[in-house]
Write a structure and sequence with these properties.
- The protein is mainly alpha-helical and 517 residues long.
- The chain contains 21 helices and no strands.
- It starts with 10 loop residues before the first helix and ends with a helix.
């Protein structure tokens, strides 16, 4: 039976909190595609075979080193980086508009420089929004990431049809529209406060694993392998001659695949609360990559279809690394910029490398695509093997279905109460009224709260708050115990009341007394 969605905030609250992040990520991704990638839905920039993309990777590496050296960046530094990023993204796009109109001498050199400048600004804006999402629940991050991907891809598709001038004008407008999205995000509660995260829901693992370097390296290796394969597919598709009509159909296939896959992931993420579905995403990516390779093995129009499928893989992988970046920045010990920049390098640097390798293989064996396709398959299989063996295969990292809520409550319960996490069917004794709420043991109250949380679809954080609240703690004490602001605790309690259709602590205790355990 399908589980009730984890995030049951009202649609109006969700729209207010999450819409700036969706629009911000979408605008940044579209701006990058319209400038650094020359209006392509996915691929390298046309000028100098991905030079602009590589410059953004160099910028990301410099940001990583700076964040590593200074530790976690101060809020003022993040604000300054974001402010500068908006301006250089917009000014770079405006410079490209000027080049389109005037067409000066050495326009190609100027174009690649401006593409790189605008691309760096767009990348920094993506990093900002990923940082903004840290501490947010896995289902919410997944929905935001894939919604932003679908919107950004649609914008890039429409502007790309209209030509370079339209691409650059759109990128200019989208870049400076980030002032509105960032301002809106600061007026509302952070997504992590409205939709708090729990580590088990990201990968089915405990919080400690997010600081494991081998764990992080496995995730990056998987991204690198799929990016390398997609880059070789991109090179092979470029080498096939075709009409403008075929190119349009190829872009349309990519758009349809991305939107359909994003819709499926969003629906599944909102329906699933008991286990991570990272494995499903990796399987789907590698399956699509294999389908694209099959089409690439044929000549003519079929190769365009293969290129379209593999372009969709790269875009979907981008949304997935947004998800991975937020997961690690939420629970890892490093600054969020380090995770975002590292995943950016893994995606784009290896994609450019794969494209160059694909051109090299195509030049060596012009009439035989088999070597390139075989190498693509090797990269995809290797990436999948690394991810599954390191991230997903360890049974100690994955809780059994239905135990995520119990794991959430376990963080705040006494160490000397091993029976506290008994199955939800364990009968709990009477809890009495508010006056004698201290009589029953903490074990029975916690067990009853866990059962109540599973019945009403409470999040892990809401179960933590409700457990302490039912034990008689004030909201101020709950905020101290869980290291949350009092406003956030108040929001959680209000949402618990709404979900359970209760109106006071006494009604909660009465419910636990009659139905808990």
């Amino acid at each position: 039976m399908a589980a009730e969605p984890v995030d049951n905030a009202s649609s109006e609250d969700a729209k207010r909190v999450l819409l700036p992040a969706v629009l911000g990520l979408a605008f940044a991704a579209a701006s990058f595609g319209l400038t650094a990638q020359g209006g392509a839905l996915a691929g390298v920039s046309p000028a100098f075979e991905g030079t602009a993309t590589l410059v953004t990777c160099a910028m990301a590496a410099a940001l990583m080193l700076s964040a590593w050296h200074h530790g976690r960046l101060a809020k003022r530094a993040v604000f300054l980086i974001t402010f500068v990023a908006i301006h250089i993204a917009g000014i770079g796009a405006l410079g490209l508009v000027f080049l389109d109109i005037t067409r000066p001498a050495q326009a190609a050199l100027w174009a690649v420089a401006l593409e790189a400048v605008s691309g760096c600004g767009s990348a920094l804006l993506m990093f900002y929004w990923l940082r903004k999402l840290r501490g947010t629940s896995a289902t919410t991050v997944s929905a935001v990431s894939f919604a932003a991907l679908a919107l950004g891809t649609a914008v890039t598709f429409v502007a790309g049809i209209a030509g370079p001038l339209a691409c650059h004008v759109a990128a200019f407008a989208l870049s400076f529209a980030q002032f509105a999205t960032t301002r809106a995000s600061r007026r509302f509660e952070a997504p992590g406060g409205a939709f708090p995260a729990h580590p088990e829901m990201y990968f089915g693992t405990s919080e400690e694993r997010f600081s494991d370097r081998g764990y992080l390296a496995a995730a990056l290796a998987g991204v690198c392998g799929v990016s390398l394969a997609a880059g070789m597919a991109n090179a092979f598709a470029i080498s096939v001659e075709g009409s403008a009509g075929l190119e349009f159909v190829s872009r349309l296939i990519t758009l349809v695949l991305v939107c359909a896959a994003a819709a499926a992931v969003m629906r599944r993420s909102l329906e699933t609360q008991e286990r991570s579905f990272v494995a499903n995403i990796w399987i789907a990516l590698c399956l699509l990559l294999s389908i694209g390779a099959v089409f690439l093995s044929f000549s003519g129009p079929a190769a365009y279809i293969g290129g379209a499928v593999d372009a969709a893989v790269l875009l979907l992988l981008q949304a997935h690394i947004w998800y991975l970046s937020v997961a690690f920045s939420s629970y890892g010990k490093l600054d969020p910029y380090i995770y975002a920049a590292g995943s950016w390098i893994a995606l784009h640097a290896f994609h450019v490398t794969g494209t160059a390798l694909g051109h090299l293989i195509a030049g060596a064996t012009p009439q035989n695509p088999a070597p390139a396709i075989a190498l693509m398959g090797l990269c995809a299989v290797g990436a999948t093997q690394i991810v599954f063996s390191q991230l997903l295969a360890d049974p100690e990292r994955t809780p059994l279905p239905g135990t995520a809520a119990q794991a959430a409550a376990a963080q705040i319960l006494p160490q000397n109460a091993p029976s506290m996490l008994a199955p939800a069917s364990t009968e709990a004794p009477s809890l009495g009224t508010a006056a004698d709420a201290g009589a029953p043991s903490d074990v029975h109250i916690a067990t009853s709260v866990i059962a109540m949380g599973q019945r009403f679809g409470l999040t892990g954080r809401e179960i933590e708050v409700l457990t302490l609240y039912a034990l008689g703690h004030t909201q101020a004490r709950v905020s101290e115990e869980l290291h949350l602001s009092q406003n956030t605790v108040h929001t959680h309690i209000k949402r618990i009341y709404d979900k359970c259709d209760l109106h006071s602590r006494q009604e909660i205790l009465d419910y636990l007394n009659e139905y808990g355990g």
